[in-house]
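Try this one yourself first.
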């Protein structure tokens, strides 16, 4: 009886080891790039103008990654929801160039009467956005709210915030405070 138990125990052990370690090995390697999220009440305000953009520079690393989720906190005390789209630009030499987003990635910032900032999460995984190196991730307002602004949660001395005041405006930078945007990315295995 013990002779049968030993091979059976070995088979069961190998079977369990295989099915326990296989899912761990098959997991995608992910990391977060950008600034640390904060829901504090320090906000960096920007006017809501169609074509205006707010974003930050992020280092995606030297190897390609796929963008999975964009996250940020915002304070919207206006009387309406604010539609936006997500843009991702190559950023050599601190100069945003060609938008890498091929399909329009839309989101909305809902009207919020609560005193705290709301967390916005945009699922980027269906859009197959692959990047490497320095990028600028921004949100672009799709309508104008005269006299209204949005407050993006921000941190001090964390790279600054890039913005455009409208469609035909040039990019500018607020160097002291950076909007707390971050992106979950998946490392790509390009063998």
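Now uncover the answer:
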């Amino acid at each position: 009886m013990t002779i049968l138990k030993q091979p059976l125990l070995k088979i069961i052990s190998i079977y369990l080891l295989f099915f326990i370690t296989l899912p761990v090995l098959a997991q995608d390697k992910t990391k977060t790039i950008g600034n640390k999220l904060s829901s504090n009440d320090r906000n960096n305000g920007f006017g809501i103008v169609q074509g205006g953009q707010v974003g930050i520079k992020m280092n995606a690393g030297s190897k390609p990654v796929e963008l999975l989720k964009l996250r940020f906190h915002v304070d919207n005390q206006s009387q309406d929801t604010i539609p936006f789209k997500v843009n991702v630009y190559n950023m050599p030499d601190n100069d945003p160039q060609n938008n890498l987003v091929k399909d329009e990635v839309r989101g909305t910032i809902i009207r919020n009467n609560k005193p705290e900032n709301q967390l916005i999460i945009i699922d980027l995984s269906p859009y197959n956005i692959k990047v490497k190196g320095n990028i600028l991730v921004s949100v672009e307002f799709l309508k104008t709210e005269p006299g209204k602004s949005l407050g993006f949660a921000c941190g001090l001395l964390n790279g600054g915030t890039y913005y455009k005041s409208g469609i035909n405006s040039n990019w500018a930078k607020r160097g002291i405070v950076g909007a707390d945007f971050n992106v979950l990315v998946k490392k790509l295995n390009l063998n």
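Discussion: The chain has one domain: 30-187. Helices lie at 2-26.
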